Amino acid sequence: MKILIIEADHEVALRLRQMLLDMEKSIGSIDICSSVKLCLKQLDAGTPDIIFRDMESDIQHPGILNNLRLCPVVLMGPENSIHPKPYGMNCFGYLNKPVELHKLKDILEKYKTIKNHFVNNIDRFIDYMNERSQAKKRFLVKGKTDYFPLLSEDIVYIRADKKLISLADKNNTRYVVEDYSLSSLEKKLDESLFYRANRKFIINVNYIRRFKPLSKSRVSVELALPVNPEILISRENSIAFKRWLGDL
Fold this sequence. Notes:
The protein is an alpha/beta fold and 248 residues long. Helix content is 29%, strand content 29%. The chain has six helices and 15 strands. It has a five-stranded parallel β-sheet with strand order 2-1-3-4-5. The chain has a five-stranded antiparallel β-sheet with strand order 10-9-8-12-11, with no helix packed on it. The mean pLDDT is 83.
């Protein structure tokens, strides 16, 4: 673990450094700087795991560390100090000065818990991203007497009718697709192109003609092809739908 302390009072910084070293054996290095401006060149050499920053350090330039989006910043200051939110930084926690040992320990435990969560789930996240990046480009569909491939981009909508899953292409021809549920199809489609409107429909953004608001904040979607029943998006999902479509 690499830690950076930004504290103008050198004695305070040394005390904090010793407290950290005494309680955490995994610390590789702890650097001390008296101000944010003085440590910028040092930060260019590598981002620390945690920054402990005095609240009053470069108080006229509170956003100077905004570019360190992935680095948690623990602010330190008096109990009656202004709330850290106006600083617009990646504020991970706040410690009153002088720093108490048990509260410092709580901060480190919180950091390790969150870090372990992401480390333990990184494989699952990579699998998810790989699955999304390898979206299916075509599907094998069944006609009246034969099978043939259908390009994903030519699918206007996918519909679930009980256990039957069907696709409608741009010519308004419907085909049965076998061995898939709507949920499994959703995972295999390009999420920038297809949207799960409700329990029955997945729709292609390129064939959305318009949508209109209904009562109770629901949304009715009109596609380039006639669809029955009407495609409705619930109040809970309407904001996400608009954001996906590019309205927000």
